[in-house]
């Protein structure tokens, strides 16, 4: 009795999540003039210069945000756990604080700071990396915190140090391989957040992928929906890949 109910629940959840995606795909491939099917909207993803530039910008922002976030957060969390446990709650509070602050307030609060950023680095959309690091901190912190809690961090670090390894070697060659799943989780979730962020980029006047999708929706609905669907599929693919990788590592650990 339980198995049929489980199957029905999976079918219901599948229909609930997949039907909107099907509707988006149907709209993005419909020819409003000829009445048939066309892939013109999907072709515009690589032929529309403004849209292609926005896609490249968002992908570069994702890479830069993930790299900077990991370089900042991983050593800090390791150092706090090993050398300053009393600061653990403070770091957690600071990392989770962006969840309670609306994006509009973040933009207004950073306006004066960004005057200096623009003066030093120019008016490039890639400067949004500094804001996006703040926005992804809560999600990245939780993923890394879970990974670090699952290992005996102090024993690993003391063993490496007793064998003559420096702190850099200890972090890179001993600790990081043991929290690889947490690092991948933080990276993939951060990429999904950056690719879907609209408010900060729009209020700052930069043409990222979400901003370009909204603007396309006013003049070219099918292309806008095609770009949105491609972004969703890419995000789902990342999360599915992470789930499969995590499950494989768990099975190896049990075996």
From TrEMBL:
<feature type="transmembrane region" description="Helical">
    <location>
        <begin position="116"/>
        <end position="141"/>
    </location>
</feature>
<comment type="similarity">
    <text>Belongs to the binding-protein-dependent transport system permease family.</text>
</comment>
<dbReference type="GO" id="GO:0005886">
    <property type="term" value="C:plasma membrane"/>
</dbReference>
<dbReference type="Pfam" id="PF00528">
    <property type="entry name" value="BPD_transp_1"/>
</dbReference>
<keyword id="KW-0813">Transport</keyword>
<dbReference type="InterPro" id="IPR000515">
    <property type="entry name" value="MetI-like"/>
</dbReference>
<dbReference type="GO" id="GO:0055085">
    <property type="term" value="P:transmembrane transport"/>
</dbReference>
<keyword id="KW-1133">Transmembrane helix</keyword>
<dbReference type="InterPro" id="IPR035906">
    <property type="entry name" value="MetI-like_sf"/>
</dbReference>
<feature type="transmembrane region" description="Helical">
    <location>
        <begin position="225"/>
        <end position="245"/>
    </location>
</feature>
<feature type="domain" description="ABC transmembrane type-1">
    <location>
        <begin position="55"/>
        <end position="244"/>
    </location>
</feature>
<keyword id="KW-0812">Transmembrane</keyword>
<feature type="transmembrane region" description="Helical">
    <location>
        <begin position="49"/>
        <end position="78"/>
    </location>
</feature>
<protein>
    <submittedName>
        <fullName>ABC transporter permease</fullName>
    </submittedName>
</protein>
<keyword id="KW-0472">Membrane</keyword>
<keyword id="KW-0997">Cell inner membrane</keyword>
<feature type="transmembrane region" description="Helical">
    <location>
        <begin position="90"/>
        <end position="110"/>
    </location>
</feature>
<keyword id="KW-1003">Cell membrane</keyword>
<feature type="transmembrane region" description="Helical">
    <location>
        <begin position="171"/>
        <end position="195"/>
    </location>
</feature>
């Amino acid at each position: 009795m339980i198995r049929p109910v489980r199957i029905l629940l999976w079918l219901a959840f599948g229909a609930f999540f997949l039907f909107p995606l099907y509707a988006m795909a149907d709209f993005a491939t419909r020819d409003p003039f000829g009445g048939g099917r066309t892939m013109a909207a999907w072709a515009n993803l690589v032929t529309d210069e403004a849209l292609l530039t926005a896609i490249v910008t968002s992908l570069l922002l994702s890479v830069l945000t993930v790299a900077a976030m990991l370089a900042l957060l991983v050593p800090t969390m390791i150092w706090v756990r090993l050398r300053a446990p009393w600061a653990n709650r403070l770091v957690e509070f600071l990392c989770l604080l962006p969840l309670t602050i609306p994006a509009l307030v973040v933009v207004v609060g950073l306006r004066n700071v960004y005057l200096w950023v623009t003066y030093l680095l120019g008016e490039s959309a890639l400067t949004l990396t500094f804001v996006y690091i703040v926005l992804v901190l809560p999600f990245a912190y939780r993923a890394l915190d879970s990974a670090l809690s699952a290992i005996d961090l102090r024993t690993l670090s003391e063993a490496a140090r007793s064998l003559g390894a420096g702190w850099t070697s200890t972090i890179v060659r001993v600790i990081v391989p043991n929290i690889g799943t947490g690092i991948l989780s933080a990276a993939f979730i951060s990429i999904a957040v950056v690719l879907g962020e609209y408010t900060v980029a729009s209020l700052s006047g930069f043409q990222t992928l979400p901003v370009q999708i909204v603007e396309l929706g006013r003049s070219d609905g099918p292309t806008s929906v095609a770009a949105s669907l491609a972004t969703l599929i890419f995000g789902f693919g990342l999360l599915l890949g992470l789930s499969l990788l995590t499950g494989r590592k768990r099975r190896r650990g049990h075996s």
